[in-house]
Amino acid sequence: MSRLSGALRVVQTPVDRSADPAAATFHRLTVADVRHDTDDSAVVTFEVPPGLEPVFEFRPGQHLTLRTVVDGDETRRSYSICTTPDHPELRVAIRRVPGGLFSNWALDSLRPGSAIDVMAPTGNFTLEHAGGHPGSVVAIAGGSGITPVISILAHALHRDPDLTATLVYVNRTVPDIMFLEELQNLKNRYIERFELLHVLTREERASSLLSGRLDGEGLERLIESGAVPAQADAWFLCGPLGLVEAMRDTLSNRGVDGRHIHTELFYAGSQPDTGDTAHDTTGVACEAVLELAGRRTRFEVLPGESVLDAAGKVRADLPYSCRGGVCSTCKARVIEGEVVMDRNWALEPDEVEAGYILTCQSHPTTPTLEIDFG
Asked: Which of 39, 57, 237, 314 minimizes the number of CB atoms within 10 Å of its CB?
C-alpha cells in the first residue's frame, strides 16, 4: 500500500472473511426503559431477545446505529453504548440537538415498549484499539462525548486493579452534566485511582483552571499544575470538533505519540474539508465490486459520486449512519484500486494504513475498485 497525491492505493491485501453477516443487518429491538438524565438527554435501554445476545456483544467505546422513519424518510444515527459488557443491559444516551431530526424524534417518541431497528455494535474507539491493557488513561470529553468514555473508564478501572485514570469533562453548567451521579459513584469507588475534573464554561468554579472554555492553553495549565498527567499510555478525546482538535494538537505539540491519541467526534459542525486539496476529489468513472454478508455485487461509480451513494443503488443492506465522515459505520477495506477521501474524522492512522476507508467520503481514482465491508 502507498499514498499517492493524497489518494489511498491498496493492491491485493488479504481480508478476514469470518465476520458475522448479522453484524451488518438491523434487528428490531424493544425499548425497555427511558430514563431522563438531564433536561435535554435521556438514557435508552433496549431488550435483547434470546438468540441475539452474541450479535450485541460489544467492546466499551463502541456505538449502535439506530434506524427509523421520520416524516416519511428513513433516518439513521449512531449513539455510543454507555454501559459495560458485564452489565446486563444494553443502553445508549441520546442528547437533543437543536434542529436534529433523529434526536428530537427519539426524545419525544421513544417509550418503554417502543420498537426500533438497531444495528450490531461497531467502532474502534476502544481500549483494545489502544493496546488492550494500558496502565494509565487520560480522557477528555465534552458534552455528550462522555457516553463512550464512561463505558471505557468504568470497564478499565474494574478490570485492571493497577490502572490509573483521569477524566476532564467539559460542560456549560452543572445541570448540563450527563451521568453526574454515575461519575461521582465511579470516583468514590476508585478514589485512589480515578481523578475526576469538571470544567464548566458558563459557571465559575473555585479554581480558574476549571472555569471557562477548555482550549490548548487550558490543557497546558492543567498539565503544568499536575491536575492532569503529562504522560499516559492512552489518551481518549471525545466531543465536538473544536475541543477534540485543540486537545489533539496540544498533545502532539507536547510530543505525545499520535498512536497513543484516540479521537471520536460527536459533532463536527460544517465538517470542513480535511483532505489533500492538491488533488481532484471528484473521482473518475469506475467499475466496482463490493462484498458484504457473503455476497459480491458489481456497481458503477460516476465522477463526483461517493462509493457509498453508488453502492446504495444496488444494495439496500449497506452499513452507514452519519454520511459525514464522523461515525465510521460505513467503513470498508480496499482490496484493489485507489480512492481519495474528502474528509476523515473517524479512522485511526493505522486503520488507513491497513486499507480502510469511509465509503461515504470516498471517490475512486482508478477505473476499477474492489472493497469489502467485512
From this structure: 39
